Amino acid sequence: MQSKQHRAFFLLLFFSFLCIQTKALADVYKCEAQGKILLSQLPCTPEQKQLSHQEITQSADEKKTQSAIAQAEKEKSALKKMQQQRLKSEQKTDAEIRRLAARAEKKKQQCDKAKLRTSWAKQDLDHAKPQAESKARQKFERSKQSADLICKTS
After folding, report:
1. What domain range includes position 103?
2. Pairing mode, if any, of strands 49-59 and 23-33?
3. Residue 71 DSSP SS3
4. Nearest-CA neighbor of 137 among 125, 120, 128, 129?
5. Is the dihedral of CA 101, 103, 107, 113 positive or negative?
6. Cα(14)–Cα(3) distance, rounded to whole angstroms?
7. Number of domains in the chain
8. How far is 79 from 50, CA to CA, in rounded Å?
C-alpha cells in the first residue's frame, strides 16, 4: 500500500512539472504614512508616499508542486495513522493468542494432575486390604470421573 501511495505521489509531481507554465502575479507596494512603513497589495493612497512597487510571480508549476507536496503529506499522515492502527490491532490479537495459549496450558496441567491422581487411586486400589477395598474403589471411581470431566473440557 505504501509503494502505491509513493508511486502516485511521484507521478503527480512528474506531471505537475510537465504542465505548461503560467504566471500568477501579485503586486507588493511599500508605502510610508506618518513615519511608518506599510506593505500592501493595493497601491498607496494619496496621503501615503510610495517607496517601491514590486511584482511577485509564481508559476503554475510551483503551485501544482506545492499542492502535490501538501497532498502527499496528507497521504503520508493517513498512512502512518493506518499503520499505527494495524500495529495496535496486531498487538491485541497477539495478546489474545497468548492468553488463550496460557489457558490451554493450564487446562492441560489440570488434566495431567487429575490423571496422576487417578493413577495413584488405582495403585491404592490394587494394594488395598480386603476391608479397605470398597473405600479405595470409591476413591478410584471418583478420581476417574473427575479426570474424565476435566480432560473432556480441555
Report:
1. 2-153
2. antiparallel
3. helix
4. 125
5. positive
6. 16
7. 1
8. 50
C-alpha cell at position 147: 479426570
Instruction: Say which amino acid occupies 48.
Output: Q
User: What does pLDDT average to in each consecutive run of 10 residues of the chain (154 residues)?
Assistant: 64 55 60 82 82 66 84 94 96 96 95 95 92 93 94 74
**Distances in whole angstroms, Cα of residue 112 to Cα of each of 4, 95, 105, 109, 119:** 53, 26, 10, 5, 10
- Answer for the pair 33, 48: CB distance below 8 angstroms, yes or no: yes
- Cell 478420581 identifies what position? 143
DSSP 106-139: HHHHHHHHHHHHHHHHHHHHHT--GGGHHHHHHH
Q: What is the pTM of this model?
A: 0.47
Query: Which position has the grid cell 497601491?
Result: 43
**Rounded to 5 degrees, what are φ and ψ at 129?**
-75, 160
Give the separation between CA 35 and CA 49, rounded to whole angstroms.
Answer: 10
Q: What are phi and psi of 45, to 5 degrees?
A: -80, 165
